[in-house]
C-alpha cells in the first residue's frame, strides 16, 4: 500500500461527490426522470399467467469463446462467437462455433479461497493467482502515437492512444493458434480532475482540453498476444492492423433501422439523419455470435447544454431522458459545446436524439463503419447481450440504467445463419422491441420494504414482455414506430412497464438460457413520493441492489411470458435483508451494487460491482447459480479505492479473466498532483485493463 495521504472522502447522495459529478451529471440532484404513475409490481393484479416450472434452454447449442479453436481463412471467419446460442440441432459452421463441453449444465466447482473485503490501493486476487496490467489510459495503440505524457496532452495524441475509463471488455480470438486476440474496450467517460495537472473547473478548461476529453471517450480495439504459454496477455508488439479508436471527435457511425433518416435524427450537419459522429458514454456491452461487439450509450444527457431554449414540444422528452430543460448549463455539464456547437440544444436540439442507442462495431474489419441500431430503442443503455433462440432468431436483452426505469428485449426479424456472417451482420437492424412488466406472486402486504422474504419463501413471480414496436409498426397508442423507438422510455411509460432498481447489465446464461439482470441499487425506492417497494424491488432505500433471474416460458426467448426470482439480494450477509439463494450466509462474501455480470463456460455467474456501500473497494465475485451451491458467492478480486470493477471477461479457455479498472482514485478532492490512488504505476491513478491468471495453468475459479 502506498504511503500517500488520501483525501477524506466526502459523501454525497450516498457516494462520492466526484463520482456523482462525472459519472451521471449529478443525477441524484435532479428529479427522477420517470415521473409516470405506471403501476409498479405491488399494484399489479394477476395478469392471468400461471407460474410454470423452470425450463432449461437447449443447452447443447451453447457457445463460448474458443481461443485457437476457430478455423477460418479470413480474420472475419476466424471470429469465434462468445454469445450463447439456445438453438439446438444447428451445427455451427467451421470457424464460427467451438462448442464442445460448453454446456454440461453442471458448473465447475469454484474452489478458490475468497479474498476479504479491503481498501488497499492495488488489485487483490486469490492465493495462487497472478495479475498484470494489460493496457492503461494513454498507452499508444495507433501508428504515430506519442508516448503518454500527462503534461503534454493533445487531442491528436489521444486519438491514437488508449482512451480513459475503460468499462466493457471483450477479448475475441484472432487466428487459429490461440496466441492472438482482439481486445475491445469501451471508454465511458472522463474524470478531468484526474487527467489534467492544474485542473480547476470544467468551465476553466481550454478548448484543447475539451477536445482531449472528447477523444478519450468512445471505444478502442487493440491486438493482444499471449505471453508465453500462460494466461497472461499483452498488446501485440509491432502489430497495429486491427487497432482502432472510435471517438467523439471524428468517428462517423451509420444509423440503421426504422428511425434512420427520420426527422428526429436530422441535424444541420447531417440533413439526411443517417450519419452521427461519435459514440457517447459507452458503458457495458456484449459480443454477438458473429463476432461483433455491442456497446451501450448510457448517460449521454450530461453532455448537452441549452435545454432551456430547446423547442417546447421537445422538452418533455428531453426531460424524460434526464436533460435539464430549465437552465442553460445543467450541473455537471462538460461544456463540450465550446469545442463543437452540436452539444448546444438551443441550436441543434436533435443532436441529443443521436445518442442513447446500441452500437455495433466489427473489430475484425478495421475499415468497417460502426452502426447504431434504432430498432433496439433509445434509452440510457447499459449494454446488450445476445442469445440465439431455438427458432434461430437473435434476442438481445437490455437494461436502462436509471432509477425506476425499465428492462427491454429485442427479437430479430431474421434468423441467425451459422457461417453466414454477411447475413448475420444485418440481424440487429430489424425486429421487435419489448419492455418488461414484472409481477410478484406474493401478497403485496408481505413485501414490507425490509427485505424479509414473503411467506412463500421467495421474491418471485411472473412477467410479460409488452410489444412496443415491430418493424415499422408501433403498438404504443399515440406513438409512431419512430417515436416509440426514439423515445422508448415514453413508450414504456405508456404501456405500464415495471419500474426497476436501475437495471444494469443483463446477460443470458450460456448453459441454462436463463437471463440475469443486475439491479444495482435505488436509494430512492419507497422514499418520499417515489414509487414504493414491490416483489422484484423489495427493499426501501435500496443501497445494495439485487440480481433478477428470468426464465422464459418454454425456454422460448422469442416469447412474451416468463417467470422470475431474485436469487441474490445483495449486502452484508449478516444483514437480515440479504439473501443468497438459500445458501448458508455465514459462508458467503459481502457484495454491494452489482453492475456487470458474466458467465464462465460451465455456467458460474460472475458479478462485478460499482459503488460498494459496505466500506470495501469494489470487486469481482463468482457463484454457482444452479444446484446446491447456488448462492455460494465468493469474492475473487478487488480493485483500488474509488474504482469500479468492469468487464469482466472470462476467456473461452478459462485460463484468463480480464477486468477493467475504471476511475481508480475517483474520490472528491483527488487530483493528478494529490491522487487518492497511485495505481497502477505509483505516480497518479490511471484507468487500466487487468488480466488475472493461474501460474499453474489451471482453470480460473476452480
Ligand atoms: Fe455506466 Fe450503468 O453504469
Ligand atoms: Ca413470492
Ligand atoms: Ca455499468
Largest beta sheet, briefly? 11 strands, antiparallel
Helix content percent band? under 10%
Q: How many beta strands in the DSSP annotation?
A: 33
Rounded average pLDDT? 89
- Domain count: the total is 1
Percent strand equals 25-35%
Tally of individual helices: 8
Organism: Pseudosporangium ferrugineum
Protein name: Phosphatase
InterPro entries: PhoX (IPR008557), TAT_signal (IPR006311)
Describe this structure in words.
With 702 residues, the protein is mostly beta strands. It has one domain. It has eight helices and 33 strands. The strands form seven sheets. Strands 14, 15, 17, 18, 19, 20, 22, 23, 24, 25 and 26 form an eleven-stranded antiparallel β-sheet that branches. A hairpin with a 5-residue loop joins strand 27 and strand 28. The model is unreliable at 1-14 and 39-104 (pLDDT under 50). The protein binds MU-OXO-diiron (FEO) and calcium ion (CA) (2 copies). The site of MU-OXO-diiron has 7 residues, from loops.
Question: What's the short story on this structure?
Answer:
Helices cover 7% and strands 26% of the residues.
